[in-house]
Amino acid sequence: QDEVAVRVHAYGGGRALVPDFPFWVRHDAPGAEAIAIAGDFAYVVESQVGLRIYDLSGPGAPVPRGLATEVQGAAQVLVIGPRVYTATPGGRSDSGVRIFDVSDPDAPVHLGTLSLHARRVAVHGTTIYVAPGDRAWFNVVDATDPAAMVDVIRYSYNLDQEVQAVAVDPARQQLFVSRLNGTGQVYDVSD
C-alpha cells in the first residue's frame, strides 16, 4: 500500500485561517483527485478506486470507513449535510455529476448520476449549478429526484468565456459564476 501525505490549507480573505497540517492517508490508489472535509470526516475521490470516507475524529491517523466505487475520479467533492456531490470533467468515460448519501459513513449510497461536462458544482436546495470548465455556459440541473436528475437549461447569456467555477451564497440566494478571463457574474437564485 502507498502512503500519501495530504496537506490541508484553509484560506479566507487571502490569508491562512488555520495553520496547515499534514495527515497521512493510507490507500491502494495512484492518488487522491479531490478532497472535502466536513465535521470529523474527509471525503476523498481516489483515482480508479472511488469515493473513500476517512474518520478524522481520533488522535492518530485517519481511519478508512466506507467506499463507493461509482466514481473513479473527480475535479471536486462537495459535502452538504448528509450528501456528497462529485464533479468529473468531460473527456472521461465517467464524466458527470454524482450524488451520494453519506449519512452512514461506513456504507455510502450512490443516489444518481447525470452525464455531462462537470468541473465544479454548487448546490442550492435541489438545484445543482454545474461549471463545465471548458465551455462558455453553465448547466442548471434539477436534482429533486437524484436517481432521475434533469439538465433543465444550459445557460450561456452574456458568457463569452469558459465557465470555470460556480458558488452559491444561500444567505443572499445568489449564484456566483467565474469565467476564464477572471470576470464573473452574479445571478439571483431565490426562486
Report on the structure:
The chain is mostly beta strands and 191 residues long. The chain is built from no helices and 17 strands. Strands 3-4-5-6 form a four-stranded antiparallel β-sheet, with no helix packed on it. A four-stranded antiparallel β-sheet has the order 7-8-9-10, with no helix packed on it. The N terminus is likely disordered.
The helix tally amounts to 0
What percent of the residues sit in helical stretches (DSSP H or I)?
Answer: under 10%
What order do the strands of the largest sheet run in, or round the barrel if closed? 3-4-5-6
Structural class: mainly beta
Rounded to the nearest angstrom, the distance between the terminal CA atoms is 49 Å
Mean pLDDT level = 79
Short description, anyone?
The protein is an all-beta fold. It has no helices and 17 strands. The model is unreliable at 1-29 (pLDDT under 50).
Using brief descriptors, characterize the structure shown.
single chain; 191 residues; four-stranded antiparallel β-sheet
Secondary-structure map with pairings?
Layout: E1 2-12, E2 15-27, E3 32-38, E4 41-46, E5 50-55, E6 63-68, E7 76-80, E8 83-88, E9 96-101, E10 109-114, E11 120-124, E12 127-131, E13 138-142, E14 150-155, E15 163-169, E16 174-179, E17 184-188
Antiparallel strand pairs: 1-2, 3-4, 4-5, 5-6, 7-8, 8-9, 9-10, 11-12, 12-13, 13-14, 15-16, 16-17
